[in-house]
From TrEMBL:
Name this polypeptide is given: ParA family partition ATPase
Protein origin, superkingdom: Bacteria
Pfam family, one: CbiA
Domain CobQ/CobB/MinD/ParA nucleotide binding: 4-184
Organism: Benzoatithermus flavus
Taxonomic path: Bacteria, Pseudomonadati, Pseudomonadota, Alphaproteobacteria, Geminicoccales
Gene3D superfamilies xref list: P-loop containing nucleotide triphosphate hydrolases (3.40.50.300)
Length: 213
């Protein structure tokens, strides 16, 4: 599976989800490579902040030809996860072309729902070349015990993209892990954040295996 985590909106959780998806896939015993396709290099910074090797390979590839380079890298990995840039540019288009699965993080805010139009339009464009590509929204930073997460799922129904059932909640553990170069799977493997990450990973694998667009 080559999964791109994409949304032109900044700060929605692309890097957080890409890192945790890579970690959850690695925890299942897969050989995983995380490709940092964002010139900001956040995933590379995460790896540099870390003590010891991460449970997956991390490479920086913020280049518009990554759809041609990734298949070569992907040969020796079970899964490749691409952390996308915060804009619609040639890097985002290239990541989209490389991917068989696309994850679009959205925060439970009307601004995020409105901003999703741009990435949905891009996905529709890519569909011409990538007929079998799977794409899903993931709600990130849902506030526990509020209806806001449910509201955003209703608001996202205007798009043809399905929403994965598990949302990632707003949790301090995610922010702390970012600074330490760790993941919630390592910090608190039985905690709620780790459970959400594992559930998300399983749902994505099931959607990908199902192959339904
Ligand atoms: N579920 C969450 N709970 C708490 N903090 C979160 C959560 N998701 C993301 N964050 C924090 O929000 C900030 C932005 O997240 P992240 O860097 O993953 O977004 P991004 O979409 O990759 O941003 P950019 O567009 O700049 O690449 C980070 O500090 C991250 O730790
Ligand atoms: Mg990022």
């Amino acid at each position: 599976m080559i999964t791109a985590v994409l949304n032109q909106k900044g700060g929605v959780g692309k890097t957080t989800i890409a890192l945790h998806l890579a970690a959850a896939l690695a925890a299942r015993g897969a050989k995983v490579m995380l490709v940092d396709a964002d010139p900001q290099g956040s995933a590379l910074d995460w790896a540099a902040a870390r003590e010891g090797e991460p449970p997956f390979a991390v490479i920086g590839l913020p280049r518009p030809n990554l759809h041609r380079e990734i298949p070569r890298h992907a040969e020796t990995y079970d899964h490749v996860v691409i952390d996308g840039p915060p804009r619609v540019n040639e890097l985002a288009r290239s990541a989209l072309l490389a991917a068989d699965t696309v994850v679009v993080p959205v925060q439970p805010s009307p601004y995020d729902v409105w901003a999703a139009r741009e990435i949905v339009a891009l996905l529709r464009e890519a569909h011409v070349f990538k007929e079998r590509q799977i794409a899903r929204f993931v709600v990130n930073r849902k506030i526990v015990n509020t209806a806001i997460g449910r509201d955003v799922v209703e608001a996202l129904a205007e798009f043809e993209l399905p929403v994965l059932p598990t949302a990632l909640c707003q949790r301090v553990a995610f922010a702390e892990c970012a600074a330490q170069g760790r993941t919630v799977l390592e910090v608190d493997p039985q905690g709620p954040a780790a459970r959400e990450v594992r559930a998300l990973c399983e749902e994505l694998l099931a959607a990908s295996a199902g192959g339904q667009a």
